[in-house]
């Protein structure tokens, strides 16, 4: 991701928001500084290395669930064949470009632990900072904050300035509506998500399904 971001937007994180975010994630994962530097140099062509490309595959999972699959690969033909095989094997199918992308919106996504602040205080801070929405799912340990992609960094910086720790801050694809799954169909979809996410070339998988509380409870057991 660092190499691709540097190749597409240049080596200066101050002028390349995507690279800046990738570096922040790498540091959070304790990636050594030298490794980050080499990844940037590979992206800009200063160091030799495999040429990686991004691709987004669209398709369907069990129950008609829409899937967006973001990959980073040095061989698109190999990767698309493997993704097609995995989808077909687990009750899904690969679709044409554009078949499901309209079902998702690109958004900034922030998670804040509920133990770090109260809902009213956080709501006031993030809305004033430019966030679009905040959600409090009683089943979850985090508040969800939604922003326009270009406002993600601004809202995150305001939270940090207020002393509120941020667990996640990233650009994501949120579904406009969700398909409710239960029973065997839910199990199949969860299994497919796990298999796709385990694929070496897959960076992110977005899906538009929801699980009822009783199904979620069984999954968490």
UniProtKB/TrEMBL annotation:
**Residues in domain TACO1/YebC-like N-terminal?**
1-46
Q: Where is the TACO1/YebC-like second and third domain?
A: 52-209
InterPro entries recorded for this chain? Integrase-like_N (IPR017856), TACO1_YebC-like_2nd/3rd_dom (IPR048300), TACO1_YebC_N (IPR049083), Transcrip_reg_TACO1-like (IPR002876), Transcrip_reg_TACO1-like_dom3 (IPR026564), YebC-like (IPR029072)
Q: Which residues form a coiled coil?
A: none
Name the keywords, alphabetized: Cytoplasm, DNA-binding, Transcription, Transcription regulation
Q: What is the protein name stated in its UniProt record? A: Probable transcriptional regulatory protein YebC
Q: Which Pfam families match?
A: TACO1_YebC_N, Transcrip_reg
The record's GO molecular-function terms, alphabetically, read: DNA binding
Q: Which GO terms describe its cellular component?
A: cytosol
Report the sequence similarity comment from the record.
Belongs to the TACO1 family.
């Amino acid at each position: 991701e660092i190499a691709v971001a540097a190749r597409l937007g240049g080596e200066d994180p101050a002028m390349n928001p995507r690279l800046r975010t990738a570096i922040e994630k790498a540091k959070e994962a304790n990636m050594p500084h030298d490794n980050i530097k080499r990844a940037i140099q590979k992206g800009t062509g200063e160091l030799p290395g495999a040429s990686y490309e991004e691709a987004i595959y669209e398709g369907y999972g069990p129950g008609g669930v829409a899937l967006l699959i973001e990959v980073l690969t040095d061989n698109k033909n190999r990767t698309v064949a493997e993704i097609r095989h995995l989808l077909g094997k687990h009750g899904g199918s690969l679709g044409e470009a554009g078949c499901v992308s309209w079902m998702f919106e690109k958004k900034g996504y922030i998670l804040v632990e509920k133990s770090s602040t109260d809902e009213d205080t956080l709501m006031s801070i993030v809305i004033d900072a430019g966030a679009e929405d905040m959600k409090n799912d009683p089943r979850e340990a985090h508040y969800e904050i939604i922003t326009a992609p270009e406002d993600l960094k601004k809202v995150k910086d305001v939270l940090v300035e207020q002393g509120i720790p941020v667990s996640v801050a990233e650009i994501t694809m949120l579904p406009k509506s969700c398909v409710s799954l239960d029973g065997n169909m839910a199990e199949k979809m969860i299994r497919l998500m796990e298999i796709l996410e385990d694929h070496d070339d897959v960076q992110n998988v977005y899906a538009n399904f929801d699980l009822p509380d009783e199904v979620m409870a069984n999954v968490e057991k």
